[in-house]
Amino acid sequence: MTGDVETDRRNAAVKALCDAIDRLDVAAMTAEVRTLPAADIAATLERHDRRQQAVLYRVLPKDLALQVFESLDASLQRDLVEALQDDAVAALFADLDPDDRVELLDELPATVAHRLLQGLPPDERAMTADILGYPQGSIGRRMSPEFVSVRPGMTTAEAMSRVSRHLADAETVYTLPVADDERVLVGVVSLRELLGAAPETTIGQLMRPVQWAYATDDAETAARRCADLKVLTLPIVDTETRLIGILTVDDALRILESAESEDQARISGVEPLRRPYLTAPVASLVRSRVVWLLVLAIGATLTVQVLEVYEQTLAEAVTLALFVPLLIGTGGNTGNQAATTVTRALALGDVRPSDLFKVLFREFRVGLALGLLLGAVAFVVTSAVYERALGTVIALTLLSVCTMAATVGGAMPLLARAIRADPAVFSNPFITTFVDATGLLIYFLIAKAVLGI
To answer: What positions does the domain CBS occupy (predicted)?
Structure first.
């Protein structure tokens, strides 16, 4: 009951804040933001235009403003930077963690990014420049260089003293990487283990084996490793296994969430917006969809050409035309289901391109089973309404199309990954077009053979 009351209170406060923003009532906004957590303010800010966002942001206390800013997508951070004055932007930019700073810099025009970098203190500028030196899409560009490491020869007391000195500037201290005198990663130790050990115990006695990622590894792959290992921190190393940064679990989850959103968008035949829906301009929504619509429209001409080739067949058995939407729709859906399932399995690391033949055999059997089930139902219904011969045509077509669509749908994401393309791009949009045209060919060939037309 207490939780319900608190939820109702927060919902009422959010509504009051939205009303104040709509009226641009600065006094009311100032009063309401002090009653809400940063996450609620960030979610509210995402629902308004740039001018309203800038006004709301200016009334936030400094500490709360930084929390809200860090909660926003990089595209919205860019909008705020463009709307705020230079002095406010410089202070905000300097307070960001280096990895968050780099993500924002990737969104900004080069001239603005250069000006902000030049305004940083030398040590912060050096850390940011180091991260910027890694390739786009690599985990080195998303790691944090602000961490606390300990050495195997340190005692627990010395390690705790070191942690205490760096509490203010470290990204996290709950998991501590252990590096030798050459900065080579040799293990990891948790703060819990330090607190439970005797002061004279050495780190070498406490540390345990550690998993890591190379700075040049793909960001999504490294984030997935962090999530799979269920660790709070994944150390990042260079080619010589020297410790250069860490990936925290919250940053890993952000990377995975972004990758998931991108895959879902492309599977559905649109480009990812990379920003909240309500803040995206209509032109951006159009651009994200029109390219794929044009591609699919061009691909659909294959279906039209197949229909034109078998125009005479349709003229002799007009009833065949009634089942065209059913057959190509079922085939497309079957292929999309297989492609989505395998794409997800690829993202989770459950399958690899080398598993192509295993996936082909498995999806062939799945498609065959689905085809038998759907074909049996279609045969009974079609034979009862029309004639047995037509029921046989529909049943055999569904059997063939489902088997073909599932097999192709399962193979496409693996082939895409093998040629270093995005599996989501090669999945549903192209499979739908392929299955439509191929399914019609199968349909008319079976119809001609069974009906003798």
So the answer is: 143-206
| Secondary structure letter of residue 209 according to DSSP | -
Residues 6+ apart with CB under 8 A from 112: 81, 82
Residue 229 tokens read as: 């290992």
Q: Identify the residue whose tokens are 């590894």.
A: 217
Compute the residue count for the chain.
453
Please name every residue paired with 178 in a beta bridge, in sequence order, or none if there are none: 150, 187
Instruction: Give the whole-angstrom CA distance, residue 210 versus residue 189.
Output: 9
**CATH homologous superfamily of 2-137:** MgtE N-terminal domain-like (1.25.60.10)
Tens-level pLDDT at each residue, the chain (453 residues):
555 667 777 888 888 888 888 887 777 888 888 888 888 888 888 888 777 887 788 878 877 888 888 888 877 888 777 777 666 667 777 778 888 888 877 777 776 677 777 778 888 888 888 888 888 889 999 999 989 999 999 999 999 999 999 888 888 899 999 999 999 999 999 999 999 999 999 999 999 999 999 999 999 889 999 988 999 999 999 999 999 999 999 999 989 888 887 777 766 666 666 666 666 777 776 776 676 667 667 766 766 666 676 667 666 567 788 888 888 888 888 988 888 888 888 877 788 888 889 999 999 999 999 999 999 999 999 988 888 988 999 999 999 999 999 999 898 888 888 887 777 666 666 777 788 888 888 888 898 888 876
Three-state DSSP state, 150: strand
* Alpha-carbon span 124 to 301, nearest angstrom: 56
Residues 6+ apart with CB under 8 A from 185: 177, 178, 179, 210, 212, 235, 237, 241, 242, 243
Q: Select 281-451's CATH number: 3.90.870.10, 2.40.128.110, 1.10.3720.10, 1.10.357.20.
A: 1.10.357.20
CA 300 from chain center: how many Å? Answer: 29
Residue 295 CB: number of other CB atoms within 10 A?
A: 14
The third-level CATH classification (topology) of the domain covering 156-267 is: CBS-domain (3.10.580)
Nearest alpha-carbon partner for 378 in 399, 401, 404, 406? 399
| CB-based contact 21:55 (threshold 8 Å) | yes
